[in-house]
Specification:
Elements lengths: L3 E7 L3 H10 L5 E6 L8 E2 H6 L8 E8 L3 E2 L6 H6 E5 L10 H9 L2 E4 L1 H5 L1 H8 L3 H11 L2 E6 L6 H12 L3 E5 L3 H36 L4 H4 L4 H16 L3 E8 L2 E2 L3 E3 L17 E2 L7 E7 L2 E9 L7 H93 L5 H26 L8 E3 L1 H13 L4 E6 L5 E5 L1 H19 L3 E12 L14 E10 L6 H4 L21 H11 L3 E6 L5 E14 L7
Parallel strand pairs: 1-2, 1-4, 3-5, 4-6, 7-8, 8-9, 17-19
Antiparallel strand pairs: 10-11, 10-12, 10-15, 13-14, 14-15, 16-18, 18-22, 19-20, 20-22, 21-22
Length: 620
Amino acid sequence: MGSKLCIRVCENFLAEVTATVRSLNLNDVKITHFPAYCGNPLLKREDLCAIGCESCKDCHRTHVLSGRCIAGQDPSPAEEADRCRLHRLDQCFYLIAPKTMIDRYLADGAYLLTPGWLSGWRRKMEKWGFDVDTARQFFGESCTRLVLLDTGVVPESPAHLSEFADFVSRPFEIVLVGQDFLGLFIEKIVLQWRLEGEQACLLEVNRQSADYAMAYELIARLTGIKSEEEAIEDIFDLFSMLFAPEKLAYVPIHGSNFGKTCCRPKDSPESWPTLECFHDDCLLPEPENGFVFRIGNEGEVLGLIQVCGIAFPQYMDRYLNMAVAMGRVCGLAIRNARAYREILRAGDELRQEIQERKKAEDERRRMEKELLRLQKFDAMSVFVGGIAHDFNNLLGVILGHVSMAQLDADPRKPIFQELEAAYTGTVRAGDLVKKLIAVSESQVPVRQEASIRKLMAKAAHSVLSGFNVELELSAPDSLWHVEVDPMQVSGAIRNVVENAGEAAGPCGLVRICAENVSIPSDGDKIGFPMMKTGRYVRISIIDRGAGISEENLSRIFDPYFSTKARGARKGMGMGLTIACSVIKKHDGYIQVESKPGAGTTIHVYLPALPQKTLRGGETM
Protein backbone atom coordinates (compact mmCIF):
# COMPACT_ATOMS: atom_id res chain seq x y z
CA MET A 1 0.00 0.00 0.00
CA GLY A 2 1.39 3.38 -0.98
CA SER A 3 2.35 6.32 1.19
CA LYS A 4 0.51 8.98 -0.84
CA LEU A 5 -2.99 10.38 -0.79
CA CYS A 6 -4.84 10.62 -4.11
CA ILE A 7 -7.37 13.40 -4.67
CA ARG A 8 -9.64 12.80 -7.66
CA VAL A 9 -11.64 15.77 -8.91
CA CYS A 10 -13.82 16.81 -11.85
CA GLU A 11 -11.80 18.21 -14.77
CA ASN A 12 -13.58 21.57 -14.31
CA PHE A 13 -11.76 22.01 -10.98
CA LEU A 14 -8.45 20.33 -11.89
CA ALA A 15 -6.54 23.63 -12.29
CA GLU A 16 -7.75 24.94 -8.89
CA VAL A 17 -6.92 21.72 -7.01
CA THR A 18 -3.49 21.45 -8.67
CA ALA A 19 -2.60 25.07 -7.84
CA THR A 20 -3.85 24.70 -4.24
CA VAL A 21 -1.90 21.49 -3.58
CA ARG A 22 1.22 23.11 -5.02
CA SER A 23 0.82 26.29 -2.94
CA LEU A 24 0.36 24.25 0.27
CA ASN A 25 3.47 22.12 -0.53
CA LEU A 26 1.50 18.88 -0.08
CA ASN A 27 4.19 16.63 -1.54
CA ASP A 28 2.42 13.47 -0.35
CA VAL A 29 -0.71 14.24 -2.39
CA LYS A 30 -1.33 12.99 -5.94
CA ILE A 31 -4.03 14.55 -8.16
CA THR A 32 -6.14 12.76 -10.78
CA HIS A 33 -9.35 13.79 -12.48
CA PHE A 34 -12.48 12.37 -14.06
CA PRO A 35 -14.48 13.82 -16.98
CA ALA A 36 -17.12 16.44 -16.23
CA TYR A 37 -20.62 14.94 -16.17
CA CYS A 38 -22.59 18.20 -15.94
CA GLY A 39 -26.00 17.62 -17.48
CA ASN A 40 -25.23 13.95 -18.27
CA PRO A 41 -26.65 10.79 -16.63
CA LEU A 42 -25.34 10.48 -13.09
CA LEU A 43 -22.10 8.55 -12.61
CA LYS A 44 -22.26 5.55 -10.26
CA ARG A 45 -19.81 5.33 -7.42
CA GLU A 46 -18.30 2.01 -8.52
CA ASP A 47 -17.71 3.42 -12.01
CA LEU A 48 -16.10 6.52 -10.49
CA CYS A 49 -13.72 4.44 -8.36
CA ALA A 50 -12.75 2.47 -11.47
CA ILE A 51 -11.88 5.63 -13.45
CA GLY A 52 -8.15 6.32 -13.09
CA CYS A 53 -7.66 3.49 -10.59
CA GLU A 54 -4.47 2.43 -12.36
CA SER A 55 -2.85 5.80 -11.67
CA CYS A 56 -3.74 5.55 -7.96
CA LYS A 57 -2.39 2.07 -7.27
CA ASP A 58 0.59 3.54 -5.45
CA CYS A 59 -1.66 5.62 -3.16
CA HIS A 60 -2.80 4.69 0.32
CA ARG A 61 -6.25 6.21 -0.14
CA THR A 62 -8.30 8.08 -2.76
CA HIS A 63 -10.63 10.97 -1.91
CA VAL A 64 -13.15 11.90 -4.62
CA LEU A 65 -14.47 15.48 -4.60
CA SER A 66 -17.75 15.82 -6.51
CA GLY A 67 -21.14 17.43 -6.71
CA ARG A 68 -24.50 16.04 -7.77
CA CYS A 69 -22.98 14.32 -10.80
CA ILE A 70 -22.33 11.23 -8.62
CA ALA A 71 -25.36 9.03 -7.98
CA GLY A 72 -26.03 8.19 -4.31
CA GLN A 73 -23.51 6.56 -2.00
CA ASP A 74 -23.89 2.85 -2.73
CA PRO A 75 -22.10 0.54 -0.29
CA SER A 76 -18.78 -0.91 -1.42
CA PRO A 77 -16.58 -3.69 -0.05
CA ALA A 78 -14.91 -2.78 3.21
CA GLU A 79 -11.41 -2.44 1.76
CA GLU A 80 -12.51 -0.31 -1.20
CA ALA A 81 -14.73 1.80 1.05
CA ASP A 82 -11.67 2.56 3.10
CA ARG A 83 -9.40 3.21 0.11
CA CYS A 84 -11.90 5.25 -1.95
CA ARG A 85 -13.83 7.87 -0.01
CA LEU A 86 -16.46 10.07 -1.63
CA HIS A 87 -17.10 13.73 -0.69
CA ARG A 88 -20.43 14.38 -2.43
CA LEU A 89 -21.57 18.00 -2.17
CA ASP A 90 -25.00 19.33 -3.10
CA GLN A 91 -23.26 21.87 -5.30
CA CYS A 92 -19.75 21.39 -6.68
CA PHE A 93 -19.27 25.16 -6.30
CA TYR A 94 -19.16 24.62 -2.50
CA LEU A 95 -15.56 23.47 -3.08
CA ILE A 96 -14.33 27.00 -3.87
CA ALA A 97 -16.75 29.37 -2.11
CA PRO A 98 -18.94 29.50 1.03
CA LYS A 99 -22.32 27.77 0.83
CA THR A 100 -24.19 30.94 1.82
CA MET A 101 -22.67 32.87 -1.10
CA ILE A 102 -23.42 30.11 -3.63
CA ASP A 103 -27.00 29.66 -2.40
CA ARG A 104 -27.60 33.41 -2.54
CA TYR A 105 -26.50 33.65 -6.17
CA LEU A 106 -28.52 30.58 -7.15
CA ALA A 107 -31.58 31.98 -5.41
CA ASP A 108 -31.15 35.17 -7.43
CA GLY A 109 -31.28 33.13 -10.65
CA ALA A 110 -27.57 33.40 -11.46
CA TYR A 111 -25.84 30.82 -13.68
CA LEU A 112 -22.56 30.05 -11.90
CA LEU A 113 -19.40 29.36 -13.89
CA THR A 114 -15.85 28.25 -13.08
CA PRO A 115 -12.62 29.00 -15.00
CA GLY A 116 -12.32 25.31 -15.92
CA TRP A 117 -15.83 25.16 -17.41
CA LEU A 118 -15.33 28.41 -19.33
CA SER A 119 -12.08 27.17 -20.88
CA GLY A 120 -14.07 24.75 -23.05
CA TRP A 121 -17.44 26.48 -23.33
CA ARG A 122 -17.57 26.25 -27.12
CA ARG A 123 -17.07 22.49 -26.98
CA LYS A 124 -19.83 22.19 -24.40
CA MET A 125 -22.26 24.23 -26.51
CA GLU A 126 -21.59 21.90 -29.44
CA LYS A 127 -22.04 18.86 -27.20
CA TRP A 128 -25.37 20.22 -25.96
CA GLY A 129 -26.46 20.91 -29.54
CA PHE A 130 -26.79 24.69 -29.02
CA ASP A 131 -26.32 27.30 -31.67
CA VAL A 132 -26.50 31.04 -30.93
CA ASP A 133 -30.31 31.22 -31.08
CA THR A 134 -31.04 28.12 -29.00
CA ALA A 135 -28.33 29.05 -26.48
CA ARG A 136 -29.73 32.55 -26.02
CA GLN A 137 -33.26 31.15 -25.65
CA PHE A 138 -32.14 28.56 -23.09
CA PHE A 139 -30.05 30.90 -20.97
CA GLY A 140 -32.55 33.73 -21.32
CA GLU A 141 -35.26 31.52 -19.81
CA SER A 142 -33.10 29.78 -17.17
CA CYS A 143 -31.01 32.56 -15.61
CA THR A 144 -30.86 36.26 -14.88
CA ARG A 145 -27.11 36.67 -15.35
CA LEU A 146 -23.80 34.81 -15.57
CA VAL A 147 -21.51 34.82 -12.52
CA LEU A 148 -17.86 33.72 -12.77
CA LEU A 149 -16.39 32.42 -9.50
CA ASP A 150 -12.86 33.49 -10.39
CA THR A 151 -10.17 31.56 -8.49
CA GLY A 152 -7.35 33.35 -10.30
CA VAL A 153 -5.74 30.19 -11.71
CA VAL A 154 -6.78 30.80 -15.34
CA PRO A 155 -5.78 34.34 -16.40
CA GLU A 156 -7.89 34.09 -19.56
CA SER A 157 -11.13 33.47 -17.63
CA PRO A 158 -12.47 37.07 -17.88
CA ALA A 159 -11.97 36.99 -21.65
CA HIS A 160 -13.68 33.60 -21.90
CA LEU A 161 -16.57 34.93 -19.82
CA SER A 162 -16.97 37.97 -22.07
CA GLU A 163 -17.07 35.74 -25.18
CA PHE A 164 -19.56 33.33 -23.62
CA ALA A 165 -21.78 36.15 -22.32
CA ASP A 166 -21.86 37.65 -25.82
CA PHE A 167 -22.72 34.24 -27.28
CA VAL A 168 -25.73 33.71 -24.97
CA SER A 169 -26.59 37.44 -24.70
CA ARG A 170 -26.64 37.55 -20.92
CA PRO A 171 -25.19 40.11 -18.47
CA PHE A 172 -22.27 38.84 -16.42
CA GLU A 173 -20.44 39.42 -13.17
CA ILE A 174 -17.03 38.35 -11.84
CA VAL A 175 -16.66 37.35 -8.18
CA LEU A 176 -13.09 36.89 -6.93
CA VAL A 177 -13.15 33.86 -4.61
CA GLY A 178 -9.45 32.93 -4.70
CA GLN A 179 -8.15 29.55 -3.52
CA ASP A 180 -8.34 29.96 0.27
CA PHE A 181 -11.68 28.17 0.70
CA LEU A 182 -10.59 25.20 -1.44
CA GLY A 183 -7.25 25.19 0.40
CA LEU A 184 -8.99 24.74 3.76
CA PHE A 185 -11.16 21.92 2.36
CA ILE A 186 -8.17 20.01 0.96
CA GLU A 187 -5.96 20.74 3.97
CA LYS A 188 -8.58 19.25 6.28
CA ILE A 189 -8.67 16.02 4.24
CA VAL A 190 -4.86 15.75 4.21
CA LEU A 191 -4.49 16.48 7.94
CA GLN A 192 -7.11 13.85 8.84
CA TRP A 193 -5.35 11.30 6.63
CA ARG A 194 -1.97 12.09 8.20
CA LEU A 195 -3.46 11.86 11.68
CA GLU A 196 -4.84 8.39 10.92
CA GLY A 197 -1.38 7.33 9.75
CA GLU A 198 0.26 8.63 12.92
CA GLN A 199 -2.33 6.87 15.05
CA ALA A 200 -1.73 3.60 13.19
CA CYS A 201 2.02 3.98 13.76
CA LEU A 202 1.42 4.60 17.44
CA LEU A 203 -0.76 1.49 17.70
CA GLU A 204 1.96 -0.61 16.06
CA VAL A 205 4.62 0.74 18.44
CA ASN A 206 2.42 0.05 21.46
CA ARG A 207 1.68 -3.48 20.27
CA GLN A 208 5.37 -4.19 19.83
CA SER A 209 6.11 -2.79 23.28
CA ALA A 210 3.44 -4.97 24.87
CA ASP A 211 4.75 -8.14 23.17
CA TYR A 212 8.31 -7.58 24.36
CA ALA A 213 7.21 -6.61 27.84
CA MET A 214 5.42 -9.94 28.24
CA ALA A 215 8.49 -11.84 27.00
CA TYR A 216 10.92 -10.09 29.33
CA GLU A 217 9.11 -9.55 32.62
CA LEU A 218 12.28 -9.09 34.60
CA ILE A 219 13.21 -5.94 32.70
CA ALA A 220 9.69 -4.72 31.95
CA ARG A 221 10.54 -1.19 32.99
CA LEU A 222 12.74 -0.75 29.94
CA THR A 223 9.78 -1.19 27.61
CA GLY A 224 7.91 1.62 29.37
CA ILE A 225 10.67 4.23 29.22
CA LYS A 226 9.84 7.24 27.10
CA SER A 227 13.28 8.75 26.52
CA GLU A 228 16.55 7.26 25.30
CA GLU A 229 18.47 8.87 28.18
CA GLU A 230 16.25 7.14 30.77
CA ALA A 231 16.62 3.83 28.93
CA ILE A 232 20.44 4.05 28.99
CA GLU A 233 20.49 4.87 32.71
CA ASP A 234 18.35 1.79 33.44
CA ILE A 235 20.50 -0.35 31.12
CA PHE A 236 23.60 0.82 32.98
CA ASP A 237 21.93 -0.05 36.29
CA LEU A 238 20.99 -3.49 34.99
CA PHE A 239 24.44 -4.24 33.54
CA SER A 240 26.18 -2.97 36.66
CA MET A 241 24.15 -5.48 38.67
CA LEU A 242 24.78 -8.38 36.23
CA PHE A 243 28.42 -7.86 35.27
CA ALA A 244 29.88 -5.62 38.01
CA PRO A 245 32.07 -3.77 35.45
CA GLU A 246 34.56 -1.01 36.11
CA LYS A 247 33.18 1.09 33.27
CA LEU A 248 30.17 1.21 30.98
CA ALA A 249 29.82 3.29 27.82
CA TYR A 250 27.08 3.73 25.24
CA VAL A 251 27.09 5.46 21.87
CA PRO A 252 23.84 5.96 19.87
CA ILE A 253 23.87 5.23 16.14
CA HIS A 254 21.57 6.85 13.62
CA GLY A 255 22.06 5.22 10.25
CA SER A 256 25.84 5.28 9.87
CA ASN A 257 26.44 8.27 12.16
CA PHE A 258 27.73 7.93 15.72
CA GLY A 259 26.20 10.19 18.35
CA LYS A 260 27.48 11.53 21.66
CA THR A 261 28.99 8.92 24.01
CA CYS A 262 27.45 8.40 27.46
CA CYS A 263 29.66 6.81 30.15
CA ARG A 264 29.60 5.60 33.73
CA PRO A 265 31.87 6.79 35.33
CA LYS A 266 32.04 10.00 33.31
CA ASP A 267 35.05 9.30 31.13
CA SER A 268 34.70 8.30 27.48
CA PRO A 269 36.61 5.43 25.85
CA GLU A 270 39.39 6.44 23.51
CA SER A 271 37.69 5.02 20.42
CA TRP A 272 34.82 2.87 19.18
CA PRO A 273 35.11 -0.02 16.73
CA THR A 274 33.45 0.45 13.36
CA LEU A 275 30.30 -1.49 12.55
CA GLU A 276 32.22 -3.44 9.89
CA CYS A 277 34.26 -5.07 12.69
CA PHE A 278 31.18 -6.94 13.96
CA HIS A 279 30.59 -10.39 12.51
CA ASP A 280 28.28 -11.32 15.38
CA ASP A 281 26.38 -9.27 17.94
CA CYS A 282 29.43 -9.11 20.26
CA LEU A 283 33.07 -8.13 19.82
CA LEU A 284 35.95 -9.03 22.20
CA PRO A 285 38.52 -6.24 22.17
CA GLU A 286 41.72 -6.12 24.24
CA PRO A 287 41.86 -6.58 27.20
CA GLU A 288 39.74 -9.73 27.33
CA ASN A 289 37.92 -8.86 30.56
CA GLY A 290 35.37 -6.82 28.61
CA PHE A 291 33.31 -6.74 25.42
CA VAL A 292 31.37 -4.51 23.06
CA PHE A 293 27.95 -5.54 21.75
CA ARG A 294 25.40 -4.10 19.42
CA ILE A 295 21.93 -2.92 20.41
CA GLY A 296 19.47 -3.33 17.58
CA ASN A 297 15.88 -3.89 16.60
CA GLU A 298 14.35 -5.26 13.40
CA GLY A 299 17.76 -5.55 11.76
CA GLU A 300 18.79 -1.95 12.47
CA VAL A 301 21.76 -1.12 14.71
CA LEU A 302 20.68 1.53 17.21
CA GLY A 303 23.82 1.77 19.34
CA LEU A 304 26.87 0.12 20.89
CA ILE A 305 27.50 -0.71 24.56
CA GLN A 306 31.02 -1.25 25.88
CA VAL A 307 31.53 -3.21 29.09
CA CYS A 308 35.04 -2.91 30.57
CA GLY A 309 36.70 -4.62 33.56
CA ILE A 310 34.05 -7.20 34.48
CA ALA A 311 34.52 -8.67 37.96
CA PHE A 312 34.49 -12.38 36.92
CA PRO A 313 36.02 -12.80 33.45
CA GLN A 314 35.85 -16.61 33.82
CA TYR A 315 32.13 -16.34 33.14
CA MET A 316 32.69 -14.47 29.90
CA ASP A 317 30.72 -16.92 27.73
CA ARG A 318 27.72 -16.70 30.02
CA TYR A 319 27.97 -12.92 30.08
CA LEU A 320 28.16 -12.77 26.29
CA ASN A 321 25.03 -14.90 25.86
CA MET A 322 23.23 -12.79 28.43
CA ALA A 323 24.38 -9.55 26.75
CA VAL A 324 23.14 -10.73 23.34
CA ALA A 325 19.71 -11.58 24.79
CA MET A 326 19.57 -8.34 26.74
CA GLY A 327 20.71 -6.37 23.70
CA ARG A 328 17.53 -7.28 21.84
CA VAL A 329 15.36 -6.07 24.72
CA CYS A 330 17.50 -2.95 25.13
CA GLY A 331 17.09 -2.35 21.41
CA LEU A 332 13.32 -2.49 21.84
CA ALA A 333 13.50 0.06 24.66
CA ILE A 334 15.61 2.45 22.62
CA ARG A 335 13.48 1.90 19.51
CA ASN A 336 10.38 2.72 21.55
CA ALA A 337 12.03 5.78 23.06
CA ARG A 338 13.00 7.08 19.62
CA ALA A 339 9.58 6.24 18.19
CA TYR A 340 7.93 8.02 21.10
CA ARG A 341 10.14 11.04 20.49
CA GLU A 342 9.12 11.03 16.82
CA ILE A 343 5.46 10.69 17.80
CA LEU A 344 5.78 13.66 20.12
CA ARG A 345 7.44 15.62 17.34
CA ALA A 346 4.76 14.57 14.86
CA GLY A 347 2.09 15.48 17.42
CA ASP A 348 3.63 18.92 17.86
CA GLU A 349 3.73 19.41 14.09
CA LEU A 350 0.13 18.22 13.79
CA ARG A 351 -1.02 20.58 16.51
CA GLN A 352 0.83 23.39 14.78
CA GLU A 353 -0.83 22.52 11.46
CA ILE A 354 -4.24 22.45 13.14
CA GLN A 355 -3.56 25.80 14.78
CA GLU A 356 -2.47 27.26 11.44
CA ARG A 357 -5.57 25.82 9.76
CA LYS A 358 -7.75 27.32 12.50
CA LYS A 359 -5.94 30.63 12.08
CA ALA A 360 -6.56 30.47 8.32
CA GLU A 361 -10.24 29.70 8.96
CA ASP A 362 -10.53 32.64 11.35
CA GLU A 363 -8.81 34.86 8.78
CA ARG A 364 -11.21 33.67 6.07
CA ARG A 365 -14.21 34.47 8.25
CA ARG A 366 -12.77 37.86 9.08
CA MET A 367 -12.25 38.59 5.39
CA GLU A 368 -15.80 37.48 4.60
CA LYS A 369 -17.12 39.73 7.35
CA GLU A 370 -15.09 42.70 6.07
CA LEU A 371 -16.15 42.03 2.48
CA LEU A 372 -19.79 41.86 3.55
CA ARG A 373 -19.42 45.19 5.35
CA LEU A 374 -17.90 46.82 2.26
CA GLN A 375 -20.59 45.37 0.00
CA LYS A 376 -23.25 46.60 2.40
CA PHE A 377 -21.68 50.05 2.44
CA ASP A 378 -21.44 50.16 -1.37
CA ALA A 379 -25.08 49.16 -1.76
CA MET A 380 -26.15 51.71 0.83
CA SER A 381 -24.11 54.42 -0.92
CA VAL A 382 -25.81 53.80 -4.25
CA PHE A 383 -29.26 53.72 -2.64
CA VAL A 384 -28.70 56.84 -0.51
CA GLY A 385 -27.15 58.74 -3.42
CA GLY A 386 -30.13 58.16 -5.65
CA ILE A 387 -32.63 59.27 -3.02
CA ALA A 388 -30.50 62.27 -2.01
CA HIS A 389 -30.28 63.63 -5.57
CA ASP A 390 -34.02 63.28 -6.12
CA PHE A 391 -34.79 64.83 -2.74
CA ASN A 392 -32.35 67.66 -3.40
CA ASN A 393 -34.22 68.56 -6.58
CA LEU A 394 -37.49 68.66 -4.66
CA LEU A 395 -35.93 70.85 -1.96
CA GLY A 396 -34.74 73.27 -4.64
CA VAL A 397 -38.31 73.69 -5.87
CA ILE A 398 -39.62 74.14 -2.31
CA LEU A 399 -36.91 76.63 -1.41
CA GLY A 400 -37.57 78.67 -4.55
CA HIS A 401 -41.31 78.90 -3.93
CA VAL A 402 -40.80 79.78 -0.25
CA SER A 403 -38.41 82.56 -1.25
CA MET A 404 -40.88 83.95 -3.77
CA ALA A 405 -43.68 83.78 -1.21
CA GLN A 406 -41.54 85.75 1.24
CA LEU A 407 -41.14 88.53 -1.33
CA ASP A 408 -44.91 88.91 -1.57
CA ALA A 409 -45.59 88.55 2.18
CA ASP A 410 -45.87 91.41 4.66
CA PRO A 411 -43.04 91.04 7.24
CA ARG A 412 -45.43 92.34 9.93
CA LYS A 413 -47.92 89.53 9.42
CA PRO A 414 -47.70 86.03 11.00
CA ILE A 415 -47.51 84.37 7.60
CA PHE A 416 -44.07 85.91 7.06
CA GLN A 417 -42.72 84.24 10.26
CA GLU A 418 -44.15 80.92 9.15
CA LEU A 419 -42.46 81.30 5.75
CA GLU A 420 -39.19 82.16 7.52
CA ALA A 421 -39.47 78.95 9.58
CA ALA A 422 -40.20 76.95 6.41
CA TYR A 423 -37.18 78.50 4.70
CA THR A 424 -34.89 77.67 7.66
CA GLY A 425 -36.17 74.07 7.80
CA THR A 426 -35.67 73.63 4.07
CA VAL A 427 -32.08 74.89 4.33
CA ARG A 428 -31.38 72.44 7.17
CA ALA A 429 -32.89 69.64 5.09
CA GLY A 430 -30.56 70.69 2.28
CA ASP A 431 -27.56 70.37 4.63
CA LEU A 432 -28.67 66.85 5.48
CA VAL A 433 -29.00 66.02 1.80
CA LYS A 434 -25.44 67.26 1.21
CA LYS A 435 -24.26 64.80 3.86
CA LEU A 436 -26.13 61.98 2.16
CA ILE A 437 -24.63 62.94 -1.21
CA ALA A 438 -21.18 62.89 0.44
CA VAL A 439 -21.83 59.26 1.44
CA SER A 440 -22.83 58.24 -2.09
CA GLU A 441 -20.41 57.38 -4.89
CA SER A 442 -21.61 60.25 -7.06
CA GLN A 443 -19.51 62.97 -5.45
CA VAL A 444 -16.14 62.46 -7.17
CA PRO A 445 -13.16 63.96 -5.27
CA VAL A 446 -11.11 66.66 -7.01
CA ARG A 447 -7.64 65.45 -6.14
CA GLN A 448 -4.48 67.46 -5.79
CA GLU A 449 -1.17 67.03 -4.02
CA ALA A 450 -1.55 67.98 -0.37
CA SER A 451 0.19 67.93 3.00
CA ILE A 452 -1.71 65.80 5.51
CA ARG A 453 0.20 67.57 8.29
CA LYS A 454 -1.46 70.88 7.43
CA LEU A 455 -4.90 69.38 6.80
CA MET A 456 -5.12 67.49 10.08
CA ALA A 457 -3.77 70.42 12.13
CA LYS A 458 -6.26 72.88 10.64
CA ALA A 459 -9.18 70.45 11.02
CA ALA A 460 -8.30 69.58 14.62
CA HIS A 461 -7.94 73.19 15.77
CA SER A 462 -11.20 74.27 14.10
CA VAL A 463 -13.22 71.42 15.63
CA LEU A 464 -11.77 71.30 19.15
CA SER A 465 -11.79 75.08 19.69
CA GLY A 466 -15.20 74.72 21.30
CA PHE A 467 -14.22 71.74 23.48
CA ASN A 468 -12.57 71.83 26.87
CA VAL A 469 -9.95 69.22 25.90
CA GLU A 470 -6.19 69.13 25.48
CA LEU A 471 -4.89 68.54 21.95
CA GLU A 472 -1.59 66.86 21.05
CA LEU A 473 -0.41 66.89 17.42
CA SER A 474 2.63 65.08 16.04
CA ALA A 475 3.92 64.32 12.55
CA PRO A 476 7.49 63.89 11.21
CA ASP A 477 9.04 66.32 8.75
CA SER A 478 9.58 63.36 6.42
CA LEU A 479 5.84 62.70 6.15
CA TRP A 480 4.90 61.62 2.63
CA HIS A 481 2.54 63.70 0.52
CA VAL A 482 -0.86 62.45 -0.63
CA GLU A 483 -3.15 63.19 -3.57
CA VAL A 484 -6.59 64.01 -2.16
CA ASP A 485 -9.52 66.40 -2.32
CA PRO A 486 -8.48 68.73 0.54
CA MET A 487 -12.03 69.82 1.33
CA GLN A 488 -13.43 66.29 1.51
CA VAL A 489 -10.53 64.79 3.48
CA SER A 490 -10.44 67.76 5.87
CA GLY A 491 -14.16 67.28 6.50
CA ALA A 492 -13.66 63.56 7.14
CA ILE A 493 -10.89 64.29 9.67
CA ARG A 494 -13.10 66.90 11.37
CA ASN A 495 -15.88 64.35 11.80
CA VAL A 496 -13.55 61.83 13.42
CA VAL A 497 -11.89 64.47 15.63
CA GLU A 498 -15.29 65.77 16.75
CA ASN A 499 -16.27 62.27 17.90
CA ALA A 500 -12.94 61.96 19.74
CA GLY A 501 -13.48 65.34 21.47
CA GLU A 502 -16.94 64.32 22.64
CA ALA A 503 -15.65 60.94 23.87
CA ALA A 504 -12.68 62.48 25.73
CA GLY A 505 -15.00 64.61 27.86
CA PRO A 506 -14.15 67.77 29.83
CA CYS A 507 -10.41 68.17 30.55
CA GLY A 508 -9.71 65.09 28.45
CA LEU A 509 -6.93 64.50 25.94
CA VAL A 510 -7.11 63.99 22.18
CA ARG A 511 -3.93 62.86 20.44
CA ILE A 512 -3.55 63.09 16.65
CA CYS A 513 -0.44 61.74 15.00
CA ALA A 514 0.59 60.93 11.44
CA GLU A 515 3.32 58.61 10.20
CA ASN A 516 4.58 56.82 7.11
CA VAL A 517 3.76 53.09 6.87
CA SER A 518 4.44 50.44 4.25
CA ILE A 519 2.05 47.53 4.02
CA PRO A 520 4.04 44.51 2.79
CA SER A 521 1.34 41.85 2.29
CA ASP A 522 -2.29 42.86 1.82
CA GLY A 523 -2.94 44.32 5.23
CA ASP A 524 -2.04 41.24 7.29
CA LYS A 525 0.28 43.25 9.53
CA ILE A 526 -2.50 45.57 10.69
CA GLY A 527 -5.39 43.12 10.64
CA PHE A 528 -6.99 44.65 7.52
CA PRO A 529 -7.28 41.75 5.03
CA MET A 530 -8.67 43.84 2.16
CA MET A 531 -5.81 46.35 2.22
CA LYS A 532 -3.52 46.50 -0.81
CA THR A 533 0.25 46.39 -0.61
CA GLY A 534 1.94 49.81 -0.82
CA ARG A 535 2.99 53.06 0.89
CA TYR A 536 0.46 54.88 3.07
CA VAL A 537 0.21 57.87 5.38
CA ARG A 538 -1.52 56.76 8.58
CA ILE A 539 -3.42 59.32 10.66
CA SER A 540 -4.31 58.11 14.17
CA ILE A 541 -6.95 59.94 16.25
CA ILE A 542 -6.81 58.73 19.86
CA ASP A 543 -8.99 59.47 22.86
CA ARG A 544 -9.11 57.95 26.33
CA GLY A 545 -12.86 58.05 26.70
CA ALA A 546 -15.32 55.34 27.64
CA GLY A 547 -14.55 53.21 24.57
CA ILE A 548 -16.97 51.25 22.36
CA SER A 549 -18.50 47.88 23.15
CA GLU A 550 -17.84 44.94 20.82
CA GLU A 551 -21.56 44.84 19.99
CA ASN A 552 -21.52 48.45 18.70
CA LEU A 553 -18.05 48.35 17.12
CA SER A 554 -19.27 46.78 13.87
CA ARG A 555 -22.08 49.37 13.50
CA ILE A 556 -20.30 52.69 14.05
CA PHE A 557 -20.07 53.41 10.30
CA ASP A 558 -23.78 52.75 9.71
CA PRO A 559 -25.85 55.86 8.88
CA TYR A 560 -27.80 57.38 11.78
CA PHE A 561 -26.24 55.01 14.30
CA SER A 562 -25.25 56.77 17.53
CA THR A 563 -24.99 55.79 21.18
CA LYS A 564 -25.22 59.45 22.30
CA ALA A 565 -28.36 61.28 23.39
CA ARG A 566 -29.70 64.05 21.17
CA GLY A 567 -28.90 67.63 22.16
CA ALA A 568 -26.14 70.20 21.90
CA ARG A 569 -23.19 68.91 19.85
CA LYS A 570 -24.97 65.58 19.40
CA GLY A 571 -25.29 64.89 15.69
CA MET A 572 -27.47 62.51 13.74
CA GLY A 573 -24.96 59.64 13.51
CA MET A 574 -23.66 60.61 10.04
CA GLY A 575 -20.14 61.83 10.89
CA LEU A 576 -18.27 58.51 10.76
CA THR A 577 -20.40 57.32 7.84
CA ILE A 578 -19.30 60.33 5.78
CA ALA A 579 -15.69 59.94 6.92
CA CYS A 580 -15.66 56.27 5.87
CA SER A 581 -17.17 57.11 2.47
CA VAL A 582 -14.67 59.91 1.78
CA ILE A 583 -11.65 57.79 2.73
CA LYS A 584 -12.91 54.92 0.59
CA LYS A 585 -13.29 57.25 -2.42
CA HIS A 586 -9.63 58.15 -2.00
CA ASP A 587 -8.63 54.46 -2.16
CA GLY A 588 -7.90 54.57 1.56
CA TYR A 589 -8.93 52.52 4.56
CA ILE A 590 -10.28 53.28 8.01
CA GLN A 591 -9.80 51.04 11.02
CA VAL A 592 -11.14 51.24 14.59
CA GLU A 593 -9.58 49.84 17.77
CA SER A 594 -11.57 50.17 20.97
CA LYS A 595 -12.41 48.44 24.23
CA PRO A 596 -14.85 49.55 26.92
CA GLY A 597 -12.98 51.68 29.46
CA ALA A 598 -9.80 51.88 27.35
CA GLY A 599 -10.70 54.62 24.87
CA THR A 600 -10.80 54.52 21.08
CA THR A 601 -8.22 54.80 18.31
CA ILE A 602 -9.25 55.40 14.70
CA HIS A 603 -6.59 54.87 12.03
CA VAL A 604 -7.03 56.48 8.60
CA TYR A 605 -4.83 55.16 5.79
CA LEU A 606 -4.35 57.26 2.64
CA PRO A 607 -2.15 56.17 -0.32
CA ALA A 608 1.08 58.18 -0.44
CA LEU A 609 2.63 59.78 -3.48
CA PRO A 610 6.03 58.37 -4.52
CA GLN A 611 9.04 59.74 -2.59
CA LYS A 612 7.84 63.21 -1.57
CA THR A 613 8.18 64.73 1.89
CA LEU A 614 7.39 67.98 3.63
CA ARG A 615 9.85 70.80 3.27
CA GLY A 616 11.93 71.54 6.33
CA GLY A 617 10.53 74.18 8.64
CA GLU A 618 6.85 73.50 7.84
CA THR A 619 4.80 73.96 10.99
CA MET A 620 1.47 72.79 12.31
